[in-house]
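Task card 7
Instruction: Convert sequence to structure tokens.
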Amino acid sequence: MKSVRLFILATLAVAVSACASVSGNTVSTAPAPSGDRWVDSVMATLTLREKAAQIVWPSLYADYTPGDSPQWQRLTDYIKHEKVGGFTMSVGSPIEMAAKLNAMQAMSSIPLLIGADLEAGAGYRARGGYFIPNGIDLGSSTIFPPQMALGATGDTSLAYQMGRITALEGRALGIQIAYAPVLDVNNNPANPVINTRSFGEDPAMVARLGAAFIRGVQQNGMMATGKHFPGHGDTDTNSHLDIPVVTVSRSRLDSVELVPFKAAIRTGVEGIMSFHGEMLALDSSGIPGTLSPKVMTGVLRNDLQFKGVVISDAMDMQGVLKQFGADEAVKRGIAAGIDILIQPQSVSKTIDAVLAGISEGRYTEARLDQSVRRVLQLKRDFDLEHRKTVSIDSLRMIVGDSSHVAVARQIAERSITLVKDSLGDVPLAVAGNSRILSITIARRADLSAGVAFNGELRSSLANLRNEFLSSDDPAPDYARLDRAADSVDVTIVGVYATQTIDATASTKTPQALAGFLQRLSAKGKRTIVVSFNDPYLLRQIPWVPAYVVAWGGFPPSQLAAARAILGKTAITGKLPISIPVNDRVIARGTGIARSVSSK
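Output:
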């Protein structure tokens, strides 16, 4: 692990040198103190409760919070009174995120470590949102398509570039740890929580792309975190809501689920995040992996020889709470080998539970010290002792840079996958006066759904009509869409939310959508369905004549899908998953190629 840390420090200097010439370093290029002197000196000052607080990391939003607001007072209490060791950053605008983290670092006597879910780049968390009621896009860090889009390209160089840009922008924002990549092998089409977050269903491909992403992150100054060990891909239960159970054999785990994690460890990944689910082949007692010594210590530490930092998945999820409750889950997690507890229900009670575990003899203070040292060593390796804040002026020259956005668009364009086109409608070959209907099906709160897609279509289609249908509506008005579709030449249906991937969507929506599309097919209507989230949607609508998978609903994927349908870009994506449809399976690797249109 020491060699990996030194590697990160050395490459960090290279990665930020260009940024430093613009307006001062966003991260320090100074070498870390030799040995563990700084770690030893900090450890000597900590009380037992302060040690426990170092491994308890609450979550926060990057929203604007006045100094006398309850929200800011709560953050101040976490830092000055509870003395937590770090935070998990949630969503907010780039500038407010960096400014807020700077203010928090200034309050803390020991530097804070900041982690964030950056599975789709810094823009996955640092976006400005939309100003209501005007719908003005307030800007964003670079946001990439979901990981499965990379799987559709099969390109490790793009995975590396995505990791590199994620690290550069994340560090500029004040984040040191990416809770990414997802190393789960998504081999269960019914998986409600992983889906396109995975690179695909082939363990070898997931391993290659994951390792490339990790190199991109860690060679550019940020720590990567492979998740969710030992594998959340073959489940049909959302661990946020219940306890998933994986019943496959150990030999299957070794040949599928564990393959990407083994590759990540060989690559030198610094962090691993746990899985809140039972894996009976590894622990037959029915304890979720996060809380199982057999999994976290026996397999991860001993069998796979992982030397880095073990981070729990969010400790407010039912995957760990349902069976034991919050306090007992904390104690079991530490005893199992967890180093950092993120997103606890209560910061104070979680710290108390860590201490109670020692007094009850569940584990020793020495065991706690192991985790605290790992946290402090990371702070030392990032040289947060000397530079724990970031330059707001530099941020603007790094975050959302046009060259970064170009990479996101390249990934999106190369990922677009044409799975079915029985009438040859993709790319569109229509007369200039053809009437085109574009229907957007999405959550009402998804203000970006269809905006970039329809904007690009409109640039080439003069007679384009747009319709929006909310997937939140318990009684969606498909009769209105039937009438609209009857009067046009081609209907394009962009689906951004379905029951398969959105647990809060109405269960009536997918069935109603299927009925609508079946009626169009029965009438012989030219119809193109674009799935912007769930590639497995085709299982519910096998009769559609044209089916395009865009993998994600973020603007780069919307733009790429529209350009592909218009024939402005070639279509080259291949399915990184198989899709069971009725009594047959559309195999992994399927993808109809299309050249740029000559029109």
